Each structure stands twice: as C-alpha cells, then as structure tokens.
C-alpha cells in the first residue's frame, strides 16, 4: 500500500465540520463522517486509480491521507487536489454572502464566520447529478440505499481499504434500462440514469456550468435539459453547481414552511420572504433553519 499525506490551506471562515453538516451528502456513499475525530473519508478515482481519502481540519489547513495500491503520478496528485477543492468548497468565496448577512442580522453573520456558506459536494458533477436523481420521488432511506448499491464491486474496482468509488459514467452509458434495474434498485430512474451517463460521458463538465460565468437562467436551461430533471432536481443540482438563487422545494421544505409559517403556496412565499438574500436565497433559507435548529441532515 502507498500512503501519501497532503495539505491544503483553508480559506477565511472555513470549517470542515460546518461544510459537512449543511446538508445530508455526508450520509451518502461513498462519504463517511467520523464523529470521534471530526474527519471525512471517502473513496474516489485519481484519474483511473481507485484511492481512499481521509481528511481532517488542522487549524488553517486540511490534512489529507491518501492510500492507493501504487505510487501516484504527479497528474494523479494534481487531480486529488482538484477534487478535494471541489468537494470541500475550498475555493468558494463567502464575502458576498457575508455582506448580505450583515444587513439581515448579527446571528447570520456569526454563522457565516463560523463556516456556513460552503457545502459538501461530490468529487465530480456527474456524481452530484446522479445522487440528485436518486433523491427524486422517494424516501431518504431509499436514496441512501441507491447510493450504497451503485458504489459496489459490480461497477468499480476496490480501493486499498476494499471500498468502492462512485463509478464513472462510461460504465453505464451503453446499458439497457432492464440491465440497470437488475443490477441496482433505482426503478424508473434507470432510463434517466443511462441518459445522464451518456451526457456526462460526452461532456463531464456539463457545458462548463461551474466555471463559465453563466447567469442563473442560462445555467438553469442547461440543467433542466437533463432527462428526469424537473424543477426540484434542476434547482437542487443548480445549488451543487454554486447557483443559490432558488430553493428546491421538496417535502422537507414544505414541512418546514408549514410548521413555521403555515404556508400554503411555498414558491410565492419563498420568493417574497427570502428576497433580501438576492442570489443567495437558498442560503438565507438554510441559515434560518440552522438558527431554528431545524436543518434536517438526513442522519
């Protein structure tokens, strides 16, 4: 086994714990959050090499333990840095969010200064898109089951610790829906999943949606063109791409609004009530839930 330790400098107001507890992604395979030492572990690919990662925050740095079956090339190490930066939001700036929070209330400022404003994402946009599809029209327990099923020996090579990374899209793009259904419990999503794999096999960056400076509407058109992505899934993936203009409305959101505001028309209420957050409407909603201690994390 080959072991390598890496370090990445944290941006201002960064907290690994907060980043991993903004939403429920830490509970979906191959992620695992370790309460004892406040660390995150997961398996992934460095180019074509399956690896194990474990990450801790040590003051102003993220320390990374990498385990692989062979020595890693400079290109593989470079990709490890890139995927960790994406997953942990280490290149996300929160100054604009902090500026709005300062106008809303001191309690919101405190949250952002304590690490809110960044969220755990998958190493790749493909994985985030797939997991978003797995959250549609089902219970959270089934979402976790689907993620666990896809991270298996059926689709990926094992890491040194016998874990299985989320597979690459090329594994699925030429399969038929009935073949998918026989291999993993994703039901009606099999057709959409295959189409998603085909799209990401052709364009892993989805038209450069995370880096090309699209406005919200232009980016939304790209995401909504994915088969199986209605308003909820599209807005959910938009958030994972860094566009926080809208709140994806699911049963958890509806329940929160009913319990706290007795809302009957969530779309109109959200637009009005969180308007002051401008392009960070989702963060306004999420920070409010944190303050109310009602930020459901899928535990």
From TrEMBL:
GO term, biological process aspect, one: base-excision repair, AP site formation
InterPro entries per UniProt: DNA_glycosylase, Oxidative_DNA_repair_enzyme
UniProt GO molecular function: 8-oxo-7,8-dihydroguanine DNA N-glycosylase activity
Signal peptide region: none
Superkingdom of origin organism: Bacteria
This protein's name: HhH-GPD domain-containing protein
Source species: Desulfosarcina ovata subsp. ovata
Upper lineage: Bacteria, Pseudomonadati, Thermodesulfobacteriota, Desulfobacteria, Desulfobacterales
């Amino acid at each position: 086994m080959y072991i390598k330790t890496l370090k990445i400098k944290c941006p201002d107001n960064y907290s690994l714990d907060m980043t991993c507890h903004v939403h429920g992604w830490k509970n979906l395979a191959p992620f695992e959050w370790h309460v004892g030492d406040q660390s995150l572990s997961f398996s992934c690919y460095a180019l074509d090499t399956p690896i194990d990662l474990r990450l801790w925050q040590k003051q102003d740095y993220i320390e990374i333990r990498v385990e692989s079956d062979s020595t890693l090339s400079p290109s593989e190490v470079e990709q490890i840095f890139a995927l960790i930066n994406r997953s942990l939001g280490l290149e996300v700036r929160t100054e604009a969010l902090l500026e709005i929070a300062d106008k809303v209330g001191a309690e919101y400022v405190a949250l952002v200064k304590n690490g809110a404003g960044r969220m755990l994402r998958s190493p790749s946009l493909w994985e985030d898109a797939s997991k978003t599809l797995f959250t549609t029209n089902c219970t959270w327990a089934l979402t976790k089951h689907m993620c666990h099923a896809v991270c298996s020996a059926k689709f990926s090579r094992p890491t040194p610790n016998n874990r299985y990374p989320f597979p690459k899209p090329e594994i699925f793009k030429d399969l038929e829906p009935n073949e998918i259904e026989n291999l993993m419990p994703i039901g009606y999503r099999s057709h959409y999943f295959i189409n998603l794999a085909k799209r990401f096999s052709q364009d892993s960056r989805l038209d450069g949606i995370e880096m090309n400076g699209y406005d919200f509407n232009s980016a939304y058109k790209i995401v909504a063109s994915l088969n199986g992505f209605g308003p909820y899934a599209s807005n959910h993936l938009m958030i994972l791409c860094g566009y926080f203009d809208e709140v994806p409305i699911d049963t958890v959101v509806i329940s929160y609004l009913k319990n706290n505001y007795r809302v009957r028309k969530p779309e109109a209420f959200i637009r009005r009530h969180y308007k002051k957050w401008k392009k960070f409407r989702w963060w306004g909603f999420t920070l409010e839930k944190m303050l109310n201690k009602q930020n459901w994390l899928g535990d």
